[in-house]
């Protein structure tokens, strides 16, 4: 998730142009693929054997990519120890573009195989393994380095040093965004432990949604017209929100100035229903909300007081969906 391995291809200029013009917005039911992949062995001796199994069971590029995504997300655990120790950080030198490409490929092969063998890794490891499998199922894949938005402290902060790696794949004439690391689960903020929780929302994600917590080093790979300032201004959105079909239309920005308001109005579009609650970090208490339905909009307000400070998190059915920063 937070690493420093930079992997780009020598054909990046061509790939960027294709990414910018080939985004499509269609969805598909992948239940058949996912259910079959869940019957696969929990381990494979090398990436080629996983790819061979996928090639045997599926024929379309989309299904093959989905099978790789699902198997890796379900069977590789995030290595918190490696992340926290920084032992995953790697640097190497190169003498020419060809030498760089060769070293990137060799390193990708090394860490991808290790990730499959140990069944754990950080974002560069997930990304490398996924890339290797894509190579063997005949799907073009690139690795993308950038900044993630994963902590409340990042609200209002411009993206700086790269801390995350994800992928894009070319299916037919279209390039699609994928984050198999975040598809595998998340860290429980209470226990500090990784919790396996398959999230299908990071597969072929709409660029506007992917942008909510991904900003690439090369802005052309955003596929949409957004800036570092736009990214910094966002609230912190969590996995349950990313895979939902509703939208927090208001507040739009992540920082709420308490001097300008005593009540924060909220509006959710196409909310299907559920228990809405909230908590300020300064209070340590979760309170329920009684929203009002107006057409396709669900509205409610949260009053601020002297103890309202720090971060404000909104929950749906006891799952955090979005956090805002309160400033005085």
TrEMBL record:
Signal peptide (UniProt feature, chain positions): 1-27
Cellular component, GO, one term: cytoplasm
Record key words, sorted: Signal
Domain of life assignment: Bacteria
Annotated InterPro entries: CAP/Cytokinesis_protein, Papain-like_cys_pep_sf, Transglutaminase-like
Domain Transglutaminase-like, residue spans: 115-182
Pfam families: Transglut_core (PF01841)
Name of this protein: Transglutaminase-like superfamily protein
Biological source species: Flavobacterium caeni
């Amino acid at each position: 998730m937070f690493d420093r391995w930079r992997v780009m291809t020598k054909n990046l200029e061509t790939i960027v142009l294709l990414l910018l013009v080939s985004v499509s917005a269609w969805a598909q039911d992948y239940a058949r693929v996912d259910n079959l992949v869940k019957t696969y062995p929990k381990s494979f001796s090398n990436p080629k054997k996983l790819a061979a199994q996928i090639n045997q069971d599926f024929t379309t590029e989309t299904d093959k990519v989905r099978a790789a995504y699902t198997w890796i997300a379900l069977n590789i655990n995030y290595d918190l120890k490696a992340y926290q120790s920084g032992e995953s950080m790697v640097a190497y030198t190169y003498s020419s573009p060809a030498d760089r490409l060769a070293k990137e490929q060799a390193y990708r092969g090394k860490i991808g195989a290790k990730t499959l063998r140990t069944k754990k890794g950080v974002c560069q490891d997930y990304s490398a393994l996924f890339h290797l499998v894509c190579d063997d199922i005949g799907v073009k894949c690139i690795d993308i380095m950038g900044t993630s938005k994963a902590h409340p402290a990042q609200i209002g902060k411009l993206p700086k040093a790269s801390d995350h790696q994800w992928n894009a794949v070319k299916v037919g004439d279209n390039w699609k965004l994928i984050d198999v690391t975040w598809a595998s689960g998340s860290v429980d903020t209470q226990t500090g432990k990784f919790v396996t929780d398959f999230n299908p929302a990071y597969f072929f994600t709409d660029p506007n949604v992917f942008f909510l917590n991904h900003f690439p080093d090369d802005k052309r790979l955003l596929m949409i017209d957004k800036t570092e300032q736009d990214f910094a201004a966002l609230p912190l959105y969590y996995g349950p929100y990313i895979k939902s079909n509703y939208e927090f239309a208001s507040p739009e920005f992540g920082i709420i100035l308490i001097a300008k308001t005593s009540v924060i109005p909220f509006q959710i579009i196409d909310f299907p229903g559920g228990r809405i609650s909230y908590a300020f970090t300064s209070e340590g208490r979760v309170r329920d909300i009684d929203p009002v339905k107006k057409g396709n909009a669900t509205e409610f307000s949260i009053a601020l007081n002297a103890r309202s400070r720090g971060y404000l998190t909104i929950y749906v059915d006891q799952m955090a969906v979005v956090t805002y920063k309160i400033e005085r």
